[in-house]
Specification:
The protein has about 280 residues and is of the alpha/beta class. The protein has 12 helices and 13 strands. It has 2 domains: about 120 residues, Roll (CBS-domain); about 110 residues, CBS-domain (Roll), CATH 3.10.580. α6 links the parallel β8 and β9. α5 packs antiparallel against α11.
């Protein structure tokens, strides 16, 4: 029996409306500590999706209507395979769920699928789904170089290699934020989100590190990557199964996991979006 989207979707998701400004969206990202959410019209009908990637890729936009993606939604009654295929097609982590009239009812990310992958893909090798582009970086590289690499490649997670091509760790834009000197006063003045009634945390700020650095002209120190990288990240072997990868992603709430051939040799990175190909 086909499983409908309504069985696994997240109901009552964070959302916002258009018309609105990008600064308002940034406030939602920070206050709610989310990485993407649907946009609706004044009547509550779904009209588009916005993610932190859209913010990063359109730093000069000021209006929501110009920045949001008019991404296809799925219906509550659709089988989950349709939703998984849409995630793969869009290569984005957030897909809106609507009813027959187009009203927003929920949202799906790959995390919603993890239990099904764990239960049903115990023997499928993860190597079948290594589809994402991977850009390794050198452990002696200055941290200050990485935001420029992100701008050029559109990638925000990097496996780290040391001399000889040996796999040494992992670094993400969130790790780099720890070296960025951004004050509370900067966030308040740039985005006007200070409010006793609607508090925010630094976790939400970390999700938007590249954009905040762009807006605030933050400079990073010449610290080497080796000093800030995750030295022992969770990994899987190229011979491991989808079940094992999904278990690690669910437990750690990870979007990606490095895939290795040996303890010192990197094969690639498997993203949660890649795993949606298992449903095809």
């Amino acid at each position: 029996m086909a499983i409908p989207v309504s069985d696994i979707m997240t109901r009552k998701p964070t959302s916002y409306h258009a018309p609105s400004t990008v600064d308002e969206l940034v406030g939602i990202f920070i206050k709610k500590n989310v990485t993407g959410f649907p946009i609706t019209d004044s009547n509550g009908r779904y009209i588009g999706m916005v993610s932190r990637r859209d913010i990063f890729d359109n730093t000069g936009e000021t209006q929501t209507a110009m920045l949001m993606r008019k991404a296809k939604a799925v219906k509550e009654s659709d089988p989950i395979q349709v939703a998984a295929a849409e995630i793969v097609s869009q290569r984005r982590r957030h897909v809106a769920v609507v009813d027959d009239q187009g009203y927003l009812k929920g949202i799906l990310t790959p995390q919603n699928f993890m239990d099904i992958l764990i239960q049903n893909y115990k023997s499928v090798p993860v190597s079948r789904f290594l589809a994402s582009k991977v850009v390794p970086i050198y452990d002696r590289m200055p941290v200050s170089v990485v935001p420029e690499i992100s701008r050029i490649t559109g990638i925000y997670t990097y496996p780290v290699l040391k001399s000889g091509g040996i796999f040494a760790g992992l670094v993400t834009d969130r790790d780099i934020f720890e070296r960025a000197k951004v004050s509370t006063e900067t966030i308040v003045s740039e985005f006007n989100i200070s409010s006793d009634e609607d508090p925010w945390t630094w976790d939400g700020v970390r999700n938007l590190m590249p954009y905040i650095m762009f807006r605030s002209h933050v400079k990073l120190p010449e610290t080497e990557i080796s000093e800030i990288m995750i030295k022992n990240p969770s990994t899987v072997f190229v011979t491991d199964t989808v079940e094992r990868v999904a278990t690690i992603m669910k437990k750690g709430n990870f979007n990606q996991v490095p895939v290795i051939e040996t303890r010192e040799k990197l094969s690639g990175i498997i993203y949660d979006v890649d795993l949606m190909g298992a449903f095809a």
